[in-house]
Specification:
Chain lengths: 352, 352
């Protein structure tokens, strides 16, 4: 196998487990515990099998137009992909193309270094402070691009608009990507900045607040020219990425604002009482604005709690990595699921 | 916009038009004129909207397993992607990673040079002979990989197994990708060679013979290690590319061998009488083993015929490129569609 020496070898991202177990409580991949909007469910029943013989719309017109209307931007400012991971991977390829290192926080979405390695992009991680917060001054150095999630993952910490604007405005030579996967759970979007800063790209997903992880829809909004470059790379990679079911069903999710708001309000309400309960049980955590809580216990190691919970059929996320190896990331499920989770923890922690 | 100097700028692939016009005859993107298998249609009606809230299986287990059984290979030898374009784009990124140029025919699928440009892979095009055929000896030179479709697109020409084996066996230092998008219309697959040659990757699609262009499913089969490298790059790009509808519905297509054979036999039968009719009208063409015919007229320029047909609501494909700018690529539709196409041509060509 002489060909092996020329293969691009990489260490892939490892997604959270997708266990197939009855009666499990799945709090490990930040999915929405409620079903998608009623219009989405209806859309699925209206899908026409016969039309699958034709290629889908390569411009993803209905979905792109729907998102443009929803956000009050031009259609040319919206780019749709196969989940926000697809959008982000293409954005790395398109925009992080200089010889200078890109910057992102040391504790962040663990796909960023994977994409950088895949595309041989140099990078520098910037340590968050002790409270898991960013400092704008750290991002005022030579760079080939900047990316961070807001709220951050897996910490849930939201940064102020003023900090984001400071970073974007002091880096007009490079693209700043703000990954707003978790913005709908109480955060303030920086979409309002895109008119002023042509170097800002905001990325969103249907996988969390819209309960459509299974449909694979993510999108980016930014300056028209920025989006144009992204589209050129997309059309140089795959002409037809969004399949017909995703295009036909996805658009119904944007229409039902009432259901959307109800759904995320429920998750936020659950999150807040879970915070109170976790405190009572001896956990500490940064104040999360995501649909998850990143918690550490004063006495019991996270690895131990993770193993115990898994044994109970309760899946949370745990990383054996510097600075965060004593934390669990707990997705906010239904009230019932979170009650069972708290009860299980309480039982375990109260044992002598 | 100082950031523009570091953007990866590319000239994207331009897919065939997807006109939305009533009563048109669409013979321009090699779609199947018949609906997908009955099991696929049933699968669509069984889709469960509520399950869309969860991430789909990142390993695409059911589809990968189904394809492995169908082709009599191990599950570890199958890689599934969002159409064969996705599979091919990832294969370029994974395997065409040396400093030496990759090789492909001068007349071929027009995405190859687009991917090479996207990833900054050097390439050398090898001229087909006057009959649009490859010569094995042309591929016995230093290279960083080889790719070609068999049957070739847009010519429809099928190369002999012996030629393919000669190319594969004389290039054990590099990966040879055979793009079998059109193999099901009378060609002989080189899948039988994968056990002997670890450097051979065979790529297939559900978009043509399986009438599922709208679902976006393509796959590759090869040596286990080859597929493993491809999976690592996939998981470094996007963890969840195949959405739930594609995974749940696609697998039904493989099961119904009877419908599949009936469908492709019909297309081949139509193709053969269309060849006779085109000859009668003064066209010449290489003998096609695809679901299309690549034809040139003795007197009338292709560009003129293309414009005339478009005016009649009949869409075929035309490229303004060296060596092929007097050819039309005509997808084989239903008998009724092809009768209308031949009648329109006959009317136009018989005018004084």
């Amino acid at each position: 196998m002489n060909w092996q020496k020329y293969v691009r070898t990489v260490t892939p991202y490892v997604p959270g487990e997708q266990p197939k177990q009855e009666k499990m409580i799945k709090l490990n991949t930040n999915e929405c515990p409620y079903p998608p909007a009623p219009g989405v469910m209806e859309g699925v029943t209206r899908l026409n099998g016969a039309s699958l013989r034709l290629y889908p719309d390569p411009d993803v017109g209905a979905l792109t137009g729907g998102l443009a209307d929803y956000h009050g931007v031009k259609k040319e400012q919206v780019f749709v992909g196969v989940g926000s991971d697809d959008v982000l991977a293409l954005a790395f390829l398109t925009f992080f193309n200089s010889d200078r290192p890109i910057l992102f926080p040391d504790i962040t979405y663990s796909f960023y270094d994977v994409w950088a390695n895949l595309y041989r992009i140099g990078y520098q991680t910037i340590p968050l402070d002790e409270d898991f917060r960013m400092r704008a001054v750290d991002y005022q150095r030579e760079n080939g691009g900047i990316i961070f999630p807001n709220p951050n993952a897996p910490t849930g910490v939201e940064e102020a608009q003023s900090l984001i604007e400071e970073i974007v405005s002091s880096n007009t030579d490079s693209i700043v990507i703000v990954d707003e996967a978790y913005i709908d759970f109480g955060g303030t979007s920086c979409l309002s900045l895109i008119d002023r800063y042509s170097n800002l790209l905001v990325v969103r997903t249907f996988s969390k607040s819209r309960a459509l992880a299974g449909l694979r829809i993510g999108y980016a909004i930014g300056n028209e020219r920025l989006i144009g470059y992204l589209k050129d790379v997309r059309f140089s990679f795959n002409s037809y990425t969004m399949n017909l079911p995703a295009q036909e069903v996805g658009v119904a999710s944007i229409v039902d604002e009432g259901y959307f708001n109800q759904c995320r309000q429920r998750i936020m309400a659950t999150r807040e009482w879970v915070k109170v309960e976790l405190s009572r049980l001896g956990f500490t955590f940064p104040d999360s604005k995501g649909n998850f809580i990143f918690a550490t216990h004063e006495q019991v190691p996270a690895a131990e709690l993770f193993a115990f919970l898994k044994g109970e059929g309760i899946y949370v996320r745990y990383w054996q990595r510097p600075r965060i190896d004593n934390y669990l990331r707990i997705t906010v499920g239904t009230d019932e699921e979170m009650r069972a989770f708290i009860n299980a923890l309480e039982g375990y922690l109260s044992k002598p």
